[in-house]
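Forum > Structural Biology > Help requests

Title: Can anyone predict the 3D structure of L-carnitine dehydrogenase?

Hi all, first post here. I have the sequence for L-carnitine dehydrogenase but no way to get a structure on my laptop. I'd be grateful if someone could post the structure tokens.
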Amino acid sequence: MRTAPENVRRVACVGAGVIGGGWVAHFLARGYDVTAWDPAPDAEQKLRRLVDAAWPALTQLGLAEGASADRLTVVATLEEAVVDAEFVQESAPEKLELKRDLLTRLDAAAPAGVVIASSTSGYPMTDMQTTAADPSRLVVGHPFNPPYLIPLVEVVGGERTAEDAVTWASRFYEVAGKSVITMNREVPGFIANRLQEALWREALHMVANGEATVKEIDDSITEGPGLRWAFMGPMLTFALAGGEGGMAHMLDHFGPSLKSPWTRLEAPELDKALYDAVVEGCDEAADGRTIADLVAERDRGVIDVLRATGRLPRQEDPR
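Reply #1:
Sure, ran it for you. Structure tokens for L-carnitine dehydrogenase below:
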């Protein structure tokens, strides 16, 4: 019988490196009992150091009632880790055969019905669930480093994953304090990694060709679009480039530049279907806010980010 997401009390974390350890710290801070396993001989010492190092930041974020690093138990075998788990987070190294074997072992050892999520940063679950006896409960729960600090987790199932397992996992992560994107379909790398990777590849091209230095590339983001991306994604940001006409005007005005050699990526054809999908998507994301509202929100956000990073003096409290 699967425990309701709101009632989960014990989580198992299998793999306790940087990502797995970050998950451990996050779940502990949210008040869960956490059982962890990692085959490395010094895994427990490293894990406890990671949790101790993360705890001050977690304390600033706000600990859940009863949260304590003392609620961590490190065990000697995979089977011990999951024997009474109500949710399992796998965070093994990014090797397909290793992931496939580990998920098969977890499926065999975990209580029936318990959802098992993989932290994979790129593999589709369809490719990882091929040898599991019950692939219906295997999902991807892709976090961002460090998982105890970055809210996002992307959830998606494989071809043999049950829809209710995906729904359950998404709700559990929300209860556990994460910001969840539930994807409708698998795509290698998921959403955010594909966007990161596009930027990363273009940056490497520019360094390789002597077009920009590493510092220039980093500064171009931290002093430019990164200030806006901290609170408003690239789509709404571009919509504001269209002024009062929003995304529709932006596409009409800048759409032809998709054919310009501004990147080594091949741009899709800006046909009516794509045009309409982007415009309608921005309207939906705006959620009733006018262009003027969004501009004011953007301006406040940039100023807040500049102040938070020490690039503008903090204002005195007028009281």
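The chain has a mean pLDDT of 93. The longest strand covers residues 138-143.
Shout if anything looks off.
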